[in-house]
UniProtKB/TrEMBL annotation:
GO terms for molecular function: alpha-glucosidase activity; carbohydrate binding. One of its GO terms (cellular component) is apical plasma membrane. The lineage of its organism: Eukaryota, Metazoa, Chordata, Craniata, Vertebrata. This is P-type domain-containing protein. GO terms for biological process: carbohydrate metabolic process. InterPro entries: Gal_mutarotase_sf_dom, GH, Glyco_hydro_31_TIM, P_trefoil_CS, P_trefoil_dom, P_trefoil_dom_sf. Belongs to the glycosyl hydrolase 31 family. Its main location: membrane.
Length: 464
């Protein structure tokens, strides 16, 4: 949330990893971070900020290069009065995009205690320095866990030790190696007050600005070793090398948090509205070495089937299977290189998953064999939206009934009531793929359907 009057979001969180690769002469680093995204808007409301220190706090505002200012007023409507109420520095400039309201040097957190369980790990407790909150509900105490997982991989996590917050599941991420080869003190330096992290000689220096950690606003800034910045999520940009002239980039979405801000320092600021900060930093002398380190952590990508790289044909609303077959035959007749034929949701009965239209697509169970005769493959679609209505003739929609019995759906805030939406089949519920019960239900339904309608691969549309 960004302001006294702002749209907020419920606590249902999703998460997306993002990456940033930057280069400094002979050293490259890949920062792989899990940032969390609130998805569900609720109506505007008023926030009243309480602070026992706003009357006495005096920001320390030293002279600094303009490119190193970190915006203390990322929302709209900045003014000197409101800026200073936040405990920030105010200095108008003529240059475009330079923030007039920026963070002081006596803001953020301080290290209260620090321990080294072994030579490869550091744990520390942080306490928020006396200063006004940015948006309210600041987290007073934080913890940081840092570990050298290999000689070229550093992980650190900053979180609230007193309250459980959503974290990205790490079931596919390896933990600390039993015999790491590089002591953490050779790589990571921790500044006590204000708290900051510096991977030695590698850039990504978080001392340039304070960490902000509030209930629904989290921010971390880091100075980088060069302007050669790549990555930072999936979004439309005109060149691979990012513009560092005060550019804000959304991470995986165009219009919502989280996002990253590139500044001329050069530096990057990450902003998000929930969860924790969980970073992996990879070191290497070449891009290939950094990518290798990255894949050692997350695993190698699956090599796709060779035929899946061929020419493919798909459209919605063929109408019936006869027209699909005519399309296939027409392309075969002119020797068009053509490996895969799809069918979209029109093959289904009333657009219901795990069904097919017994009238217009009556011979669908044999369609794969028809394609295989000429070395072609068949892919069909499934949507992650399950209709709540019955089937033709008032028959039971058993896929929905079995999912309901297994509590497989995304629920409302009470954790019980299925969340209802409207998609192609009309009123629908949504599989909760974070639930093992849902996974078991989905696998069972898919196996049942595959036994009925043979096919070579599945086209799964993203969650609605």
């Amino acid at each position: 949330m960004l302001g006294a009057f702002a749209k907020s979001r419920l606590s249902l969180l999703d998460s997306f990893p993002f990456q940033i690769l930057f280069q400094s002469h002979s050293t490259l680093l890949l920062v792989y971070s899990f940032i969390l995204l609130n998805l569900i808007p609720i109506p505007p409301f008023c926030i009243v900020l309480f602070s026992e220190i706003t009357d006495t706090f005096v920001p320390t505002c030293p002279s600094m290069p303009l490119g190193e200012r970190v915006d203390c007023f990322p929302d709209s409507g900045a003014s000197q009065e409101i800026c200073q109420e936040r405990g920030c520095c105010w200095s108008p400039r003529d240059e475009s995009n330079v923030p007039w309201c920026f963070f002081p040097t006596n803001y953020g957190y301080t290290v209260e205690s620090q321990e080294t369980p072994n030579s490869y790990a550091i744990k520390a407790k942080l306490t928020r320095m006396e200063s006004p909150p940015l948006f309210g509900q600041h987290i007073k105490e934080l913890a940081i866990d840092a570990e050298m997982q290999t000689k070229n991989r550093l992980r650190f996590k900053i979180y609230d030790p007193n309250n459980k917050r959503f974290e990205v599941p790490h079931e596919h991420i390896l933990s600390l190696n039993p015999t790491p080869s590089s002591p953490i003190n050779n790589t990571l330096q921790i500044t006590q007050k204000p708290f900051g992290l510096t991977p030695k000689g590698m850039g990504f220096d978080t001392r340039m600005a304070p960490i902000v950690f509030e209930d629904q606003y989290i921010q971390l800034s880091a100075k980088l070793p060069s302007h050669n910045i790549y990555g930072l999520g999936e979004h439309v940009h005109r060149q691979y090398r990012h513009d560092t002239n005060w550019r804000t980039w959304p991470i995986f979405t165009r219009d919502a948090f989280p996002n990253g801000v590139n500044t001329p320092a050069p530096a990057v600021t990450y902003r998000t509205i929930g969860g924790v900060l969980d970073f992996y930093i990879f070191f290497g002398d070449t891009p290939e070495q950094v990518v290798h380190e990255f894949l050692e952590l997350i695993g190698k990508p699956v090599i796709p089937a060779y035929w899946s790289l061929g020419f493919q044909l798909s459209r919605w609303n063929y109408g019936n299977l006869s027209i699909v077959k005519e399309t296939v035959e027409r392309n075969r007749a002119v020797d068009l290189p053509y490996d895969i034929q799809y069918t979209d949701i029109d093959y289904m009965e009333d657009k219901k998953d795990f069904t097919y239209d017994k009238v217009k697509f009556a011979e669908l169970p044999q369609f794969a064999e028809f394609l295989h005769e000429k070395g072609q493959k068949y892919i069909l679609i499934l949507d992650p939206a399950i209709a709540t209505s019955k089937r033709v003739g008032d028959a039971l929609y058993e896929s929905y009934d079995r999912g309901t019995a297994k509590n497989a759906w995304v629920t409302e805030a009470d954790g019980v009531t299925p969340l209802i939406g409207e998609v192609w089949p009309g009123e629908a519920v949504f599989p909760d793929y974070t639930s093992q019960a849902c996974i078991d239900w989905w696998v069972d339904e898919y196996e049942r359907f595959y036994r009925e309608v043979k096919h070579d691969a599945l086209w799964i549309v993203s969650q609605f």
